[in-house]
């Protein structure tokens, strides 16, 4: 599938008509027409309406809603409604509730109050999906199935009795014997040797640090368990609706779910994104997630399934989006590969936990700046519709790895690292220079890239290290950051030393870690570096690393690692293999990234870095987006200087 569906950009949002009387539905469809809405996501939280009691179904209202939408030419992204089970179901089966690591049973007074491991939940959820699929599988307005909603958002893990049973089954499939599990988990440490799978429980709150391999296996198991629920629902709707694509909404770089695995199972990737309007770093984080979504789909178009037109209602203070800011974030997503711009939600709720969350049609009604901006964007996207399916070329790759994220967050590490923050530090330097980045899993493929950056690939198997080693060998540039290649997939320290087969390619030997810990009560130490890259500074991490067969570009000036190598480069014919043994601060990362981009001969769409304006080419269009509340001027290659007002954006062709 090249484009997501149909011949127009998706434009619309979650539509929750069950919250309103029927006469409001007439106005909804009329105003959707005015706004240029092309798709509505219906039924996300409708289970208790669709099945008011065991065995009792009520589809009449949904028949009516879907009929109205189809008649108006609005595509239907039909939700399977399984994210919020009805009270009668939980009352009859209290054991289906999720349980936290501390043993707290979560109440059904909100949403997502189900254990992903509960057979009762699964049975009833699939019965609902079957009923929906049977009734609407061939509906003329159907353009996609929207399975569940934001899996694992509020319940990232469940530790109840059903979890124990399911975890054991997952472990039996992974390790055929208990002996194999004992070896993999290193259970001779602290007398954890198991004599049978039935002794194993989920890793609930324990006296001190838990078994690291058990913890990461529980993370993997949880991601797989949610995915299995997705798969079961998807199978039903696919059978009922051949050719209709199936998705579930992702949540950016989201810790609980390994989206590399998930992305293989959806027909197109979709994402929910709520950047804080007043956070100056939010545009970078948003760009990162857009690039991640495109990359998860291996370059195929994706849909921004939910964003806010203005304020959310779950931050301590909920700033509105400034005039133009909704458009700026929307065009950012289109620039980075989205074929759909959708919102939570169409009409702002009058009741419930999200009544202060903005919507396409706010409490103030159509005579409002929010609705006018929505209508203008709908019209603009209609004009841009020929860009659907257009590719976003990237020559830089950054490795993103869920196993490493999970491992780095465990208690027993040389230093705690915020993995996504570290990835974003590298990403920001490319973003500021308008070099588009693809994210790639640890084992590649890397062939399409001139430059590959590897931040803290803490957990790496031989396949990943071999794939990375091939980058400089074929003439590319490889940049490997600290804390890479330390552990194998069982979280055992790699027997042949840190970096495994990459050590030779990088020409380094790591002897000992030396994290830069602050003295009690003191600020985090700054590490100064000097060398051929000039004066640099860093923090957090240092190490005793030998430059065995490589050029030292920067050395530590301070502390116990004084004069030891901090940044090295090994030339391999046309290729280069860099090792960065510390956490460079942003200006130093910028300096290194500038050098790398120049060295790789990557032509950029602008002539200098910018902290505020991003310029991205998609197909034959160049998107220029100013994220700042001030006017900005930027020199766009081939188009000269462009001046954009606060949160201004333009699309240039040619
Ligand atoms: C998520 C959910 C929506 C809504 C929005 C806004 O994206 O999917 O149902 O709760 O957040 O908070």
CATH top level of the domain at 396-600? Alpha Beta
Using the alpha-carbon principal axes, give the shape.
globular
Query: Taking strands numbered 1, 2, ... along the chain, how are they ordered across the largest sheet?
Result: 11-10-12-13-20-19-18-15-16-21
Identify the bound ligands. Answer: alpha-D-galactopyranose
Runs in which pLDDT lies below 50 for 5 or more consecutive residues are none
How many helix segments? 17
The span between the termini is: 26 Å
Q: Tell me the radius of gyration.
A: 26 Å
> What is the typical, i.e. mean, pLDDT?
97
CATH A-level architecture of the domain at 396-600: 3-Layer(aba) Sandwich
Percentage of residues in DSSP E strands: 15-25%
Major β-sheet annotation: 10 strands, mixed
Number of strands: 26
- Report the CATH topology name of the domain at 396-600: Rossmann fold
Q: What is the CATH superfamily of the domain at 396-600?
A: Class I glutamine amidotransferase (GATase) domain
Question: Helicity range of the residues?
Answer: 25-40%
Broad structural category: alpha/beta
